[in-house]
């Protein structure tokens, strides 16, 4: 481990109160494992010695040896050893049976000890998952929006069957102009100030307090796990992941699950098909499916974007769209500076499709977001915060949403960025959504936070990592305490369903500090590691979720077929239709390609679609309408086949397999 002073010679040493220990238990764990394996090998040697002695004990009577474990085993001793006293032979046989039983018991004891250690570690990992899900209010039912009394505005469309009354129909999808027409800003109730308080503590985590006295005494309403506790738990999980016997055991269990799936399909494929045929109306095309991972700035396909750019050049060439080189430029002048006309543009000149050279190259992948390779066109057409206040992006977003509403059964969770460079980013984004009325029953929003502290530090946008945390979370705590201080942000957050931390996952991260500095003293130019980002995202979201809960506010090789066969809860998504897809229904395109490549059946695609709805952040009331009133229950009780078209026999198989695995982990006495 490199000393902090050696790596940062110009930096003063960290004080104890400015940093926290990041546990490194590898030495202790390796020593414990060494002792365990030494003990294990000693017992193996003793067992081998016993086996050797047993195999050299020869029964002295020519009669069958009856063993309750192995059945009847006939003696094949040479004839010249069969003339010994019969009683002696019986006595030796009894000793042989007792010796074999003793060896078997000792072998079972050794296997039990090893499995018990594995099961205990796996069980602790499950308990840690439950612990962090519970404290951060991420379980089903923790979110106030899961309540049936939760108000959704604008309201969702009424069911089409049985046919509704004309006065109950509500907004009818009629092109991009109809998107948001049922949203009236003045009709949205804005709650007032509450009597809770919040502030950021010395460790970089916002804490919520019920009273001023609690604030003075530092008694928050929820105990957020400390950085030390978090990293200790993370270290334990990583140690389980890297343990050799654990990996071998997991590999064998996963292969077993694949084999079990293959056997299930061989026995039940036709039963599933027959069960699906008995369900009226439903098939793959008219069950709900959610695109759970799609970046908003590339939610359209290339042809759509090209058509939109040409239309804007034709309709609004005099729009002042950008400020460059000390002067304002109209859309027409921007393209003149590029020596291009609307006639010259085509898919090839746009050059936004991901080719072979883009894969495993995050830098080239990001450059594909620039139309014609020009960052100025990206700023004009694909940004919310620009000189035209994101008007072009809002217009093309409405066109994409209109296509979703026309399809009726396709939904999307659009990922949109908050960078953490300034506190007003949230208000600008919320104003863009509200003022352009980007509200649809088919769309929810998910916030992605790029891990770009090093870039902001280099451009002097922030002084330290605490500034990034403050810029991301302070506006959220402000609007939760007093929604009237940021009314548009309050409205927007009703449609936000989660957070994500994004960056180039292929970059290797080295541990550069034995003790990590707290965010207020992380002012060096290096980017914090992913685990550091993850903790401060988790810790501040834990406080925020508790705060909002009290206020009753919400918020070429592919592992997919293997994961699906093993029973993991997986779904399909488009990610970047602009770079990967060709049709105006990219999600259906994704499913059709997957069905062709991996030979997915109708039941497979319906199960994947149901998974996508269950994974999504839509309100519980909506999920009940889409996939069943008791969708959250495990097994057949949670499956409404009339809505999901997933055969009950498939759901029963998945649940029984899961229970078998969980029961195995709880069985510490083999």
Automatic annotation (TrEMBL):
InterPro entries: A/AMP_deam_AS, AMPD, Metal_Hydrolase. The keyword RNA-binding does not apply. Pfam families: AMP_deaminase. Keywords: Hydrolase, Metal-binding, Zinc. Pathway: Purine metabolism; IMP biosynthesis via salvage pathway; IMP from AMP: step 1/1. Residues 153-164 have a biased composition (Pro residues). Its EC number is 3.5.4.6. Its cofactor is Zn(2+). PROSITE patterns: A_DEAMINASE. It is an enzyme of class 3 (hydrolase). It comes from the Eukaryota. Belongs to the metallo-dependent hydrolases superfamily. Adenosine and AMP deaminases family. This is AMP deaminase. It comes from Linnemannia gamsii.
